[in-house]
Each structure stands twice: as structure tokens, then as C-alpha cells.
Specification:
This protein is α+β, with helices and mostly antiparallel strands. The chain has one domain: 2-Layer Sandwich (YaeB-like fold). It contains three helices and four strands. Strand 3 and strand 4 (80-87) form a beta hairpin. Helix 1 packs antiparallel against helix 2 (26-43). It is globular and about 35 Å long.
Length: 103
Amino acid sequence: MSGYILHPDAYTDLDDIWEFIAEDSLDAADRVREELYQAILALVPFPRQGHRRTDLTSRPLRFWRVRDYLIAYAPDEKPLLVVAVMHGSRNPRVMAAILRGRE
């Protein structure tokens, strides 16, 4: 048991990230995907290590940065629920809309 689950759309997020990076380098895409999964695993025993983003959501989600990506997750869910994985340079309004769509 991994201790976390991914929202169905978070799987799509991770696939989209991999595909985007893979256009330039399959090895780099694999490395980034592995770093993201390892970061999620590291959040399981310490779910409060992320930070809040009240500018994006009023929900009790936390955010953890890995490279240029933000992992949005629900720290109080058991198992830990990863809601989204988004590029950190996205427009905050777009990020907020993505999170609203995944309630």
C-alpha cells in the first residue's frame, strides 16, 4: 500500500507533464515523473510539510513544490489524496479553476 491515492484527473496531470517533457527527452520525462512520485510518497508520513495557498482555494489543501510543479493534496485524507499536479507558473486563476473542478 502506497499511503496515497491520486484524483483521476491527477493521473492525467502526470501523464500530460510526462508527454510534454518527453517531446524533448524521454530520460528527462522519466526523471521528473519519478521525482514527482517520490515527493508524493515523502508527503505520506509528514502531510503537513506543504504550505497553504489561500489565493487558490479555501479548501484545506496543501501544496508542495517539485521542480517547477505544485502538488496539491488533501493532508487530512487517509490515504493522502493528491488532487492535482500543476506547473507553478500557470495563472493563479487557472489553477484555482482546476482545483474547483476537482472537489
